[in-house]
Design brief:
Order of helices and strands: HHEHEEHHEHEEEHEEEHEHEHEH
CATH class of the largest domain: Alpha Beta
Helix content: 25-40%
CATH topology of the largest domain: Rossmann fold
Strand content: 15-25%
Shape: globular
Length: 347
Protein backbone atom coordinates (compact mmCIF):
# COMPACT_ATOMS: atom_id res chain seq x y z
CA UNK A 1 0.00 0.00 0.00
CA UNK A 2 1.53 3.30 -1.07
CA UNK A 3 1.59 6.57 0.85
CA UNK A 4 -1.62 7.95 -0.65
CA UNK A 5 -3.58 4.72 -0.10
CA UNK A 6 -2.52 4.67 3.55
CA UNK A 7 -3.72 8.24 3.91
CA UNK A 8 -7.12 7.35 2.39
CA UNK A 9 -7.80 4.51 4.79
CA UNK A 10 -6.44 6.37 7.82
CA UNK A 11 -8.71 9.26 6.78
CA UNK A 12 -5.86 11.75 7.01
CA UNK A 13 -7.15 15.26 7.49
CA UNK A 14 -4.75 16.80 5.00
CA UNK A 15 -6.59 15.02 2.16
CA UNK A 16 -9.21 17.77 2.34
CA UNK A 17 -6.66 19.84 0.38
CA UNK A 18 -7.26 17.50 -2.57
CA UNK A 19 -11.04 17.79 -2.32
CA UNK A 20 -11.33 20.36 -5.15
CA UNK A 21 -9.49 17.93 -7.43
CA UNK A 22 -11.90 15.19 -6.36
CA UNK A 23 -14.84 17.34 -7.36
CA UNK A 24 -13.22 17.95 -10.75
CA UNK A 25 -12.55 14.22 -11.15
CA UNK A 26 -16.16 13.42 -10.27
CA UNK A 27 -17.42 15.98 -12.80
CA UNK A 28 -15.21 14.64 -15.58
CA UNK A 29 -16.21 11.05 -14.74
CA UNK A 30 -19.87 12.02 -15.06
CA UNK A 31 -19.29 13.74 -18.41
CA UNK A 32 -17.34 10.74 -19.67
CA UNK A 33 -20.18 8.43 -18.70
CA UNK A 34 -22.77 10.52 -20.53
CA UNK A 35 -20.62 10.62 -23.65
CA UNK A 36 -19.78 6.92 -23.69
CA UNK A 37 -22.70 5.10 -22.10
CA UNK A 38 -24.52 2.69 -24.40
CA UNK A 39 -28.17 2.43 -23.36
CA UNK A 40 -29.43 0.21 -26.17
CA UNK A 41 -27.91 -3.17 -27.01
CA UNK A 42 -26.09 -3.47 -30.34
CA UNK A 43 -27.35 -5.96 -32.93
CA UNK A 44 -24.63 -8.45 -31.97
CA UNK A 45 -25.76 -8.41 -28.34
CA UNK A 46 -27.79 -11.62 -28.32
CA UNK A 47 -27.14 -12.98 -24.82
CA UNK A 48 -27.36 -11.41 -21.34
CA UNK A 49 -24.19 -9.69 -20.16
CA UNK A 50 -23.23 -9.34 -16.50
CA UNK A 51 -20.59 -6.82 -15.46
CA UNK A 52 -18.79 -7.47 -12.17
CA UNK A 53 -16.86 -4.46 -10.90
CA UNK A 54 -16.35 -1.98 -8.12
CA UNK A 55 -16.26 1.76 -7.53
CA UNK A 56 -12.98 1.88 -5.63
CA UNK A 57 -9.37 1.28 -6.65
CA UNK A 58 -7.56 -1.78 -5.39
CA UNK A 59 -8.60 -5.39 -5.01
CA UNK A 60 -12.08 -6.24 -3.76
CA UNK A 61 -12.31 -9.87 -4.86
CA UNK A 62 -13.95 -9.53 -8.27
CA UNK A 63 -12.15 -12.50 -9.80
CA UNK A 64 -13.12 -15.02 -7.08
CA UNK A 65 -16.71 -13.83 -7.36
CA UNK A 66 -16.69 -14.23 -11.13
CA UNK A 67 -15.24 -17.74 -10.86
CA UNK A 68 -17.88 -18.71 -8.30
CA UNK A 69 -20.71 -17.31 -10.45
CA UNK A 70 -19.45 -19.03 -13.59
CA UNK A 71 -19.41 -22.35 -11.71
CA UNK A 72 -22.94 -21.76 -10.39
CA UNK A 73 -24.21 -20.94 -13.87
CA UNK A 74 -22.67 -24.09 -15.33
CA UNK A 75 -24.34 -26.14 -12.59
CA UNK A 76 -27.68 -24.65 -13.67
CA UNK A 77 -27.16 -25.60 -17.32
CA UNK A 78 -25.94 -22.24 -18.63
CA UNK A 79 -23.01 -21.94 -21.02
CA UNK A 80 -21.11 -18.90 -19.75
CA UNK A 81 -18.40 -17.06 -21.62
CA UNK A 82 -16.07 -14.50 -20.06
CA UNK A 83 -14.40 -11.30 -21.23
CA UNK A 84 -11.56 -9.53 -19.45
CA UNK A 85 -9.20 -6.66 -19.96
CA UNK A 86 -6.31 -9.05 -19.32
CA UNK A 87 -4.74 -6.70 -16.79
CA UNK A 88 -1.00 -7.25 -16.49
CA UNK A 89 -0.72 -8.90 -19.90
CA UNK A 90 1.46 -7.26 -22.56
CA UNK A 91 2.42 -7.97 -26.13
CA UNK A 92 -0.72 -9.93 -27.00
CA UNK A 93 -2.43 -9.75 -30.36
CA UNK A 94 -5.90 -8.69 -29.22
CA UNK A 95 -8.52 -9.97 -29.08
CA UNK A 96 -6.96 -13.09 -27.57
CA UNK A 97 -8.93 -16.22 -26.72
CA UNK A 98 -7.15 -18.13 -24.00
CA UNK A 99 -6.35 -21.83 -23.99
CA UNK A 100 -4.13 -24.24 -22.06
CA UNK A 101 -1.03 -22.88 -23.83
CA UNK A 102 -1.72 -19.21 -23.04
CA UNK A 103 1.03 -17.32 -21.24
CA UNK A 104 0.46 -15.23 -18.15
CA UNK A 105 2.68 -12.54 -19.68
CA UNK A 106 0.10 -12.04 -22.45
CA UNK A 107 -3.17 -12.94 -20.74
CA UNK A 108 -2.58 -11.50 -17.28
CA UNK A 109 -2.78 -13.46 -14.02
CA UNK A 110 -6.51 -13.03 -13.39
CA UNK A 111 -7.67 -14.08 -16.85
CA UNK A 112 -5.44 -17.15 -16.88
CA UNK A 113 -6.72 -18.19 -13.45
CA UNK A 114 -10.30 -17.75 -14.66
CA UNK A 115 -9.88 -20.01 -17.68
CA UNK A 116 -8.13 -22.68 -15.59
CA UNK A 117 -10.72 -22.62 -12.79
CA UNK A 118 -13.90 -22.38 -14.86
CA UNK A 119 -13.15 -24.13 -18.15
CA UNK A 120 -15.21 -21.42 -19.84
CA UNK A 121 -14.17 -19.67 -23.05
CA UNK A 122 -12.28 -16.50 -22.05
CA UNK A 123 -11.33 -13.64 -24.37
CA UNK A 124 -9.08 -10.78 -23.26
CA UNK A 125 -8.89 -7.36 -24.87
CA UNK A 126 -8.64 -3.84 -23.39
CA UNK A 127 -11.53 -3.04 -25.77
CA UNK A 128 -14.27 -5.08 -24.13
CA UNK A 129 -16.70 -4.65 -27.02
CA UNK A 130 -14.13 -6.21 -29.32
CA UNK A 131 -13.59 -9.00 -26.78
CA UNK A 132 -17.34 -9.59 -26.65
CA UNK A 133 -17.64 -9.76 -30.42
CA UNK A 134 -14.79 -12.27 -30.63
CA UNK A 135 -16.31 -14.38 -27.86
CA UNK A 136 -19.74 -14.53 -29.48
CA UNK A 137 -18.41 -15.19 -32.98
CA UNK A 138 -16.18 -18.10 -31.98
CA UNK A 139 -18.04 -19.81 -29.12
CA UNK A 140 -21.48 -21.07 -28.17
CA UNK A 141 -22.43 -19.19 -25.01
CA UNK A 142 -25.77 -18.09 -23.57
CA UNK A 143 -24.52 -15.62 -20.94
CA UNK A 144 -21.42 -13.44 -20.72
CA UNK A 145 -19.57 -12.34 -17.59
CA UNK A 146 -17.29 -9.30 -17.75
CA UNK A 147 -14.38 -9.34 -15.32
CA UNK A 148 -14.38 -5.71 -14.17
CA UNK A 149 -15.69 -3.05 -16.54
CA UNK A 150 -18.21 -1.25 -14.35
CA UNK A 151 -16.79 2.04 -15.64
CA UNK A 152 -16.34 0.75 -19.22
CA UNK A 153 -19.53 2.46 -20.37
CA UNK A 154 -19.08 1.72 -24.05
CA UNK A 155 -20.00 -1.85 -23.14
CA UNK A 156 -23.74 -2.43 -22.92
CA UNK A 157 -24.70 -4.47 -19.87
CA UNK A 158 -27.89 -6.12 -18.68
CA UNK A 159 -26.90 -6.67 -15.06
CA UNK A 160 -24.38 -4.85 -12.87
CA UNK A 161 -22.84 -6.40 -9.77
CA UNK A 162 -20.72 -4.12 -7.58
CA UNK A 163 -18.29 -5.73 -5.15
CA UNK A 164 -17.33 -3.94 -1.93
CA UNK A 165 -14.39 -4.73 0.34
CA UNK A 166 -16.07 -5.48 3.67
CA UNK A 167 -12.90 -4.71 5.61
CA UNK A 168 -11.90 -1.40 4.06
CA UNK A 169 -15.28 -0.18 2.75
CA UNK A 170 -14.89 3.27 1.14
CA UNK A 171 -12.16 4.84 3.31
CA UNK A 172 -12.96 8.55 3.59
CA UNK A 173 -15.69 8.41 0.93
CA UNK A 174 -13.93 10.81 -1.46
CA UNK A 175 -13.33 10.33 -5.16
CA UNK A 176 -9.82 10.29 -6.58
CA UNK A 177 -7.31 11.72 -5.73
CA UNK A 178 -8.54 12.65 -2.23
CA UNK A 179 -9.99 9.16 -1.76
CA UNK A 180 -10.13 5.75 -3.43
CA UNK A 181 -13.45 6.08 -5.26
CA UNK A 182 -13.67 5.98 -9.06
CA UNK A 183 -17.27 7.13 -8.83
CA UNK A 184 -19.33 8.62 -5.98
CA UNK A 185 -21.11 6.36 -3.51
CA UNK A 186 -24.42 7.23 -5.15
CA UNK A 187 -23.34 4.99 -8.06
CA UNK A 188 -24.09 1.96 -5.87
CA UNK A 189 -27.77 2.88 -5.86
CA UNK A 190 -27.85 2.28 -9.62
CA UNK A 191 -26.35 -1.23 -9.77
CA UNK A 192 -28.50 -4.36 -9.67
CA UNK A 193 -26.61 -6.14 -6.89
CA UNK A 194 -24.07 -5.28 -4.22
CA UNK A 195 -21.89 -8.07 -2.82
CA UNK A 196 -19.78 -7.39 0.28
CA UNK A 197 -16.56 -9.41 0.50
CA UNK A 198 -15.63 -10.75 3.96
CA UNK A 199 -17.92 -8.52 5.99
CA UNK A 200 -17.01 -9.69 9.48
CA UNK A 201 -18.51 -6.59 11.00
CA UNK A 202 -22.29 -6.28 10.72
CA UNK A 203 -21.82 -2.51 10.76
CA UNK A 204 -20.20 -2.83 7.32
CA UNK A 205 -23.31 -4.38 5.78
CA UNK A 206 -25.50 -1.92 7.66
CA UNK A 207 -23.53 1.01 6.25
CA UNK A 208 -24.02 -0.26 2.71
CA UNK A 209 -27.67 -1.13 3.34
CA UNK A 210 -28.31 2.60 3.70
CA UNK A 211 -27.49 2.81 -0.03
CA UNK A 212 -28.90 -0.50 -1.24
CA UNK A 213 -29.51 -4.01 0.09
CA UNK A 214 -26.42 -6.19 -0.12
CA UNK A 215 -25.42 -9.83 0.18
CA UNK A 216 -22.22 -11.21 1.67
CA UNK A 217 -19.43 -13.26 0.07
CA UNK A 218 -17.03 -15.20 2.26
CA UNK A 219 -13.69 -16.79 1.45
CA UNK A 220 -12.99 -19.94 3.42
CA UNK A 221 -9.48 -21.48 3.33
CA UNK A 222 -9.71 -25.03 2.01
CA UNK A 223 -6.46 -26.57 0.77
CA UNK A 224 -2.73 -25.87 0.73
CA UNK A 225 -1.25 -27.02 -2.59
CA UNK A 226 2.42 -27.30 -3.44
CA UNK A 227 3.12 -25.30 -6.62
CA UNK A 228 5.96 -27.56 -7.68
CA UNK A 229 4.61 -31.05 -6.95
CA UNK A 230 0.84 -30.56 -6.69
CA UNK A 231 0.82 -32.16 -3.22
CA UNK A 232 -2.36 -31.22 -1.33
CA UNK A 233 -3.18 -30.87 2.35
CA UNK A 234 -6.29 -29.58 4.14
CA UNK A 235 -5.77 -26.06 5.44
CA UNK A 236 -6.22 -27.16 9.05
CA UNK A 237 -3.73 -29.97 8.45
CA UNK A 238 -0.97 -27.72 7.15
CA UNK A 239 2.11 -29.88 6.35
CA UNK A 240 4.68 -27.52 7.84
CA UNK A 241 6.97 -28.50 10.69
CA UNK A 242 6.30 -26.98 14.08
CA UNK A 243 8.53 -23.98 14.47
CA UNK A 244 8.31 -23.14 10.79
CA UNK A 245 7.84 -19.54 9.78
CA UNK A 246 5.14 -19.13 7.13
CA UNK A 247 6.18 -16.49 4.60
CA UNK A 248 3.08 -15.00 3.00
CA UNK A 249 3.87 -13.47 -0.38
CA UNK A 250 1.27 -11.44 -2.27
CA UNK A 251 0.77 -9.04 -5.15
CA UNK A 252 -2.81 -8.05 -4.35
CA UNK A 253 -4.81 -4.87 -4.09
CA UNK A 254 -5.72 -5.70 -0.50
CA UNK A 255 -3.31 -8.37 0.82
CA UNK A 256 -4.50 -8.08 4.41
CA UNK A 257 -7.52 -10.26 3.67
CA UNK A 258 -5.13 -13.06 2.58
CA UNK A 259 -2.84 -12.53 5.54
CA UNK A 260 -5.78 -12.77 7.94
CA UNK A 261 -6.65 -16.22 6.57
CA UNK A 262 -3.09 -17.47 7.07
CA UNK A 263 -3.00 -16.00 10.57
CA UNK A 264 -5.37 -18.81 11.58
CA UNK A 265 -2.51 -21.31 11.22
CA UNK A 266 -0.41 -22.13 14.33
CA UNK A 267 2.79 -20.69 12.88
CA UNK A 268 4.69 -17.46 13.02
CA UNK A 269 3.60 -15.37 10.03
CA UNK A 270 5.84 -13.03 8.05
CA UNK A 271 4.35 -11.00 5.20
CA UNK A 272 5.91 -9.78 1.96
CA UNK A 273 3.74 -7.46 -0.13
CA UNK A 274 4.43 -6.55 -3.75
CA UNK A 275 2.53 -4.15 -6.04
CA UNK A 276 -0.82 -5.38 -7.35
CA UNK A 277 -0.39 -7.76 -10.35
CA UNK A 278 3.40 -7.77 -9.90
CA UNK A 279 5.14 -10.13 -12.35
CA UNK A 280 7.21 -12.28 -10.01
CA UNK A 281 10.71 -13.54 -10.70
CA UNK A 282 13.04 -15.70 -8.63
CA UNK A 283 15.16 -12.59 -8.03
CA UNK A 284 12.23 -10.89 -6.24
CA UNK A 285 12.35 -13.52 -3.50
CA UNK A 286 16.11 -13.29 -3.16
CA UNK A 287 16.11 -9.50 -2.96
CA UNK A 288 13.47 -9.46 -0.22
CA UNK A 289 15.37 -12.03 1.81
CA UNK A 290 12.63 -14.66 1.66
CA UNK A 291 14.03 -17.82 3.28
CA UNK A 292 14.16 -20.89 1.05
CA UNK A 293 14.11 -23.19 4.10
CA UNK A 294 10.72 -22.01 5.38
CA UNK A 295 7.36 -22.39 3.59
CA UNK A 296 6.26 -19.70 1.16
CA UNK A 297 2.49 -19.38 0.76
CA UNK A 298 0.65 -17.25 -1.78
CA UNK A 299 -2.74 -16.97 -3.46
CA UNK A 300 -3.61 -19.11 -6.45
CA UNK A 301 -3.55 -16.03 -8.67
CA UNK A 302 0.01 -15.17 -7.66
CA UNK A 303 1.12 -18.82 -7.83
CA UNK A 304 0.38 -18.87 -11.57
CA UNK A 305 3.24 -16.41 -12.06
CA UNK A 306 5.73 -18.49 -10.06
CA UNK A 307 5.34 -21.92 -11.67
CA UNK A 308 8.51 -21.74 -13.75
CA UNK A 309 10.83 -21.18 -10.79
CA UNK A 310 8.85 -22.66 -7.87
CA UNK A 311 10.84 -24.71 -5.36
CA UNK A 312 9.72 -27.43 -2.96
CA UNK A 313 8.73 -24.86 -0.31
CA UNK A 314 6.33 -22.92 -2.57
CA UNK A 315 2.62 -23.38 -1.72
CA UNK A 316 -0.63 -21.66 -2.56
CA UNK A 317 -3.90 -21.47 -0.67
CA UNK A 318 -7.06 -22.64 -2.44
CA UNK A 319 -10.27 -21.14 -1.04
CA UNK A 320 -13.98 -21.86 -1.20
CA UNK A 321 -16.32 -19.00 -2.11
CA UNK A 322 -19.55 -18.84 -0.09
CA UNK A 323 -22.40 -16.83 -1.61
CA UNK A 324 -25.82 -16.22 -0.13
CA UNK A 325 -28.56 -18.33 -1.70
CA UNK A 326 -31.03 -15.46 -2.05
CA UNK A 327 -28.52 -13.58 -4.19
CA UNK A 328 -27.89 -16.61 -6.43
CA UNK A 329 -31.61 -17.35 -6.79
CA UNK A 330 -32.41 -13.74 -7.67
CA UNK A 331 -29.61 -13.57 -10.23
CA UNK A 332 -30.68 -16.85 -11.86
CA UNK A 333 -34.26 -15.64 -12.06
CA UNK A 334 -33.15 -12.40 -13.73
CA UNK A 335 -31.01 -14.32 -16.20
CA UNK A 336 -33.76 -16.72 -17.17
CA UNK A 337 -36.12 -13.83 -17.86
CA UNK A 338 -33.46 -12.00 -19.88
CA UNK A 339 -32.62 -15.16 -21.83
CA UNK A 340 -36.32 -15.63 -22.71
CA UNK A 341 -36.56 -12.00 -23.85
CA UNK A 342 -33.41 -12.29 -25.96
CA UNK A 343 -34.68 -15.52 -27.55
CA UNK A 344 -38.00 -13.94 -28.46
CA UNK A 345 -36.32 -10.89 -30.00
CA UNK A 346 -33.82 -13.01 -31.98
CA UNK A 347 -35.86 -15.83 -33.58
Amino acid sequence: MNFLEKAWYKKARWLILLWPLSLLFQLLAGIRRKLQETKTPPASHKVPLIVIGNISVGGTGKTPLLIALASKLKEQGFKPGIISRGYGGVGADYPLQLDEDSKVSEAGDEALLIVEKTGCPVVVDPDRNRALQCLLENNTVDVVLSDDGLQHYKLYRDIEIALVDGQRLFANGYCLPAGPLREPLSRLQQVDYIVVNQADDTDAVAAIAELKSASVMRLEPRTLININSGEKHPFKGAPFNMGSRVQAVSALGNPQRFYDLLARLPYQLETFSFPDHHAFSAEDFEKRGIDGHHPIVMTEKDAIKCREFAQANYWYLAVDIRLEENFIESLLDRLRKLSTTEANSNP
